[in-house]
Amino acid sequence: MEYKVITIGDKDFPIKFGFNALRKYSIMTNTKLADLQKIGEGMDLNSALTLCYCGIQDGCRVAKKKFDMSIDDLADLFDGNWDCMESVFSVLASQMTDGFDEKKKTPKKEKK
Asked: I need a labelling partner for 42 at 20 to 30 A (CA). Which of 35, 50, 92, 103 fits?
């Protein structure tokens, strides 16, 4: 899975919601694996920002870009740019769907 680039305010960030980002999110929020399927449903602001943070942090890791922001720094970037949160969740939805679609496309071995 490749990372996407999103713009928050006047800054571009690589973002990726693969297993590593979800792993970090689950550690930071104490989310269980079974609950990751419901990610985004009834989410509070802190969880949403944490998810964004983990996705951007992992996108930077994959893109080999330095990432030295805190969640507080990221929250400041969203001030006046609330619509950018929608962009993040759009990327999340597409990358989660892509992962399921790729799994469906894998041909099964025929039984002999």
From this structure: 103
